[in-house]
Amino acid sequence: MIVGKHDYIIEKLEGILKLAKFGTLGSSDPERIMRMLREEDFDLLLIGGGIEPHSRLAYIEYIQSHKPDVRVVEHYGGPATILSEVHGALGFTA
After folding, report:
1. What CATH number has the domain bearing residue 54?
2. Domain total in the chain
3. How far apart are CA 74 and CA 94, in angstroms?
4. 37-52: pLDDT as tens digits
5. Model's pTM, two decimal places?
6. 17: containing domain
7. Which of 18, 24, 50, 64 is deepest in the core (most CB within 10 A)?
8. What pLDDT is recorded for position 94?
9. Within a 10 A sphere around the Cβ of 76, how many other Cβ atoms?
């Protein structure tokens, strides 16, 4: 699951991940994000660098409390590093 500040960046990251055969869902809307955190099944939460600190903390705390098996990646770089970050978080080797 991808959360970010800008939909066009989320769409770009979704495209990269889909090409690598990952299923994706994402949003920039805080209410939708919280609903997705509660209702959707996913293995990884990718938080974009534009997310405000209080929202970032709320998402991470929710995951830690309710879905402790979900890995969290705080992504601050560009799209070039996204696959290596996701692979690393999920324990994939090159």
Report:
1. 3.40.50
2. 1
3. 21
4. 999 999 999 999 899 9
5. 0.91
6. 2-90
7. 24
8. 57
9. 10
